[in-house]
Amino acid sequence: MQAVRRCAQVTLALSALLAQHPAEAACNRPDIQFAVPPDGADGVPPNAKLFARYRSNAEYTGEEINLQQVGGSTQQLTGEWSSAETLLGVVPSLEPGESYSIDWPRLRGVNSASLGKGKTVAFEVGSSLDEAPPEFGGLSGVSWDVDRERDDCTDSLEERYVFDFDLGPASDDGGRESLMVLLFQTKGPHVKGDVPEPVSVQRMPRAGDTLRLTRTLDDGEGDVCFAAVARDLTGKVSASGAKEVCVETVAPPFFNGCSATRSPARGAALA
Predict the structure, then answer these.
(1) 105-137 per-position pLDDT tens digit
(2) In the prediction, which pLDDT does 264 show?
(3) HEC-encoded secondary structure of the chain
């Protein structure tokens, strides 16, 4: 009887979750994920580039990017697109002490006519150039779990590894809040030799927060290792890429019965 009640509770919880996240709302929409500098940033270096990262199915086809100086003129810019990182960047002309807003465009998806979400970001420019690479302690620990979620597009339940990384201290003369973290898998089922596999580009989390990575079961099972570098608004990177954290994962299932709730963290390892 307890098992029956547990199954019923799980079914209700899963139904509630799916009701909050209908499939048609997010399936394959090439939304912007983050921008650096972020909205409200100050002290942005006058020699900074500006970046926006979109979902992996986004495609840039020359959409205009407008940079408005508060109380001044508008710069109409053409972006530089990295399809590998789905990262859109511009090289603006920034005046020290001035305030700006940039309208990151809505992009279309690959082989799709649908538009994703764009974003308007406001920031203030400081007086000092960004001249030094970021200081970053790299990855300092990792824990893992398996998450089971319903895919918005296929409407099927998908199991994936979830890795949460502890990070070392980070700083930059262009501001910590504008750093990006480039995450690499250095060991795993599909990592070839000594060539790290780029797996994620994210904003640097707030101090004390973890960085999360999701991998397929096929990519994350067994003995896996990761490393990370920080990159600033001028493209300089930290010297942290040689520091690895490793952990050994186990393939699911971990439990009996019908529970579909997330289980406690299954394993952790430190560098």
Answers:
(1) 999 998 887 899 999 999 999 999 999 999 999
(2) 40
(3) CHHHHHHHHHHHHHHHHHHHCCHHHHCCCCCEEEEECCCCEEEECCCCCEEEEECCCEECCCCCEEEEECCCCEEEECCEEECCCCEEEECCCCCCCCEEEEEECCCEECCCCCECCCEEEEEEECCCCCCCCCEECCEEEEEEEEEEEECCCCCCEEEEEEEEEEECCEECCCCHHHCEEEEEEEECCCCCCCCCEEEEEEECCCCCCCEEEEEEHHHHCCEEEEEEEEECCCCCECCCCCCCEEEECCCCCCCCCCCCCCCCCCEEEEC
